[in-house]
Amino acid sequence: MEFTAKQIAEFVGGKVEGNPDAKVNTFAKIEDGKKGAISFLSNPKYTHYIYNTECSIILINDDLVLDSPVRPTLIRVKNAYECVARLLQMYEAAKPKKTGTDSLAFISPSAIIGDNTYIGAFAYIGENVKIGENTQIYPNTVIGDDVYIGEGCIIYPNVTIYQGCKIGNNVTIHSGSVIGSDGFGFAPKDEGYDKIPQIGIVTIEDNVEIGANTCIDRSTMGSTIIHKGVKLDNLIQVAHNVEIGEHTVMSAQVGIAGSTKIGEWCMFGGQVGLAGHIHVGNRTFLGAQSGVPGNIKGNETLIGTPPMEPKAYFKSQAIFRKLPEIYKQLNELQKQIEELKKK
């Protein structure tokens, strides 16, 4: 599939600088560009690559000022990063989608499967499962009894969705993820621990994406809820009865303890850890490796354990590095004070 700079500019609402008939048929990073590829420039750190790249077309921001002429055809847009995302979505949507059921898949006679679906080899579809139109279930995936999956979903290989869970429309779940495993509930007693049965489910609303090897536990009662538009990276742990608000995003290795409520439009860096039974308000931004022991009001950017404003955090870290020297000085001062007392 091939497109000209003029066609692309019309699609993204941009302005062409250079040859409007320049053609591309693939994407490339600006530093690894080749003839026939389109790339983008949005981070100023990569500006120097534009002068040597072999890409045929580059999307750039309206306000970018170049020091000298460049070889590629340029398309100026308001937001280059956003525009390349739209182009990638269009490119992905144009790919042919698999349909049909592999002869090696197992589908319970009581399951209801929508039109234009794909079910790969060795997939298991349990009793009373409902799967919507245009959904793809890749090989080795297990869909437990009474699960509901909406339309336009992609469930990649080796995903397990336990019984009773509900998945909305246009949800993507990447390989190795487990939806609806038991919440970590045990009651201590003299002889050890009694397991508390986890009789709830997981509910995932529309337009959610879940990364590889992420685990979302079923609730003790009721439902663990992932609201619409949430994006979870790989290797995230969401415990029982957690609720994640709309359009919140989390990087890899975030861990959320049970019954914690997280607001809308939050952003968590990698390895953030949250204690259980707390509330995090809307638009909370947590830096990587932050540890959250208590409630956060929201509309804050925080980092560290416990979280604090970035300026205070980095000042504290500068002092922390000097602690051995400060400790030595305190000991010397203490000795001097003791000597003065003796005199």
Terminal residue distance: 91 Å
What is the number of helices?
A: 4
Let me know the average pLDDT.
95
Radius of gyration: 26 Å
Structural class: alpha/beta
In a nutshell, what does this entry contain?
The chain has 343 residues and is of the alpha/beta class.
Task: Give short descriptive properties of this protein.
343 residues, alpha/beta, 11-stranded parallel β-sheet, 10-stranded parallel β-sheet, 4 helices, 39 strands, 29% strand, flat
Description:
The chain has 343 residues and is of the alpha/beta class. It contains 4 helices and 39 strands. The chain has an 11-stranded parallel sheet, with no helix packed on it. A 10-stranded parallel sheet has the order 9-12-15-18-21-26-29-32-35-38, with no helix packed on it. β22 and β23 form a beta hairpin. The longest helix is centred in the C-terminal third of the chain and has 20 residues, at 323-342. The protein is flat, with a radius of gyration of 26 Å. The termini are far apart.
Blueprint (SSEs and pairs):
Blueprint: E1 3-4, H1 5-12, E2 15-17, E3 23-24, E4 26-27, E5 37-41, E6 57-61, E7 73-77, H2 80-94, E8 100-101, E9 106-107, E10 112-113, E11 118-119, E12 124-125, E13 130-131, E14 136-137, E15 142-143, E16 148-149, E17 154-155, E18 160-161, E19 166-167, E20 172-173, E21 178-181, E22 186-189, E23 192-195, E24 201-204, E25 209-210, E26 215-217, E27 223-226, E28 231-232, E29 237-238, E30 243-244, E31 249-250, E32 255-256, E33 261-262, E34 267-268, E35 273-274, E36 279-280, E37 284-286, E38 291-292, E39 300-302, H3 310-321, H4 323-342
Parallel strand pairs: 4-5, 5-6, 6-7, 8-11, 9-12, 10-13, 11-14, 12-15, 13-16, 14-17, 15-18, 16-19, 17-20, 18-21, 19-24, 20-25, 21-26, 24-27, 25-28, 26-29, 27-30, 28-31, 29-32, 30-33, 31-34, 32-35, 33-36, 34-37, 35-38, 37-39
Antiparallel strand pairs: 1-3, 2-7, 22-23
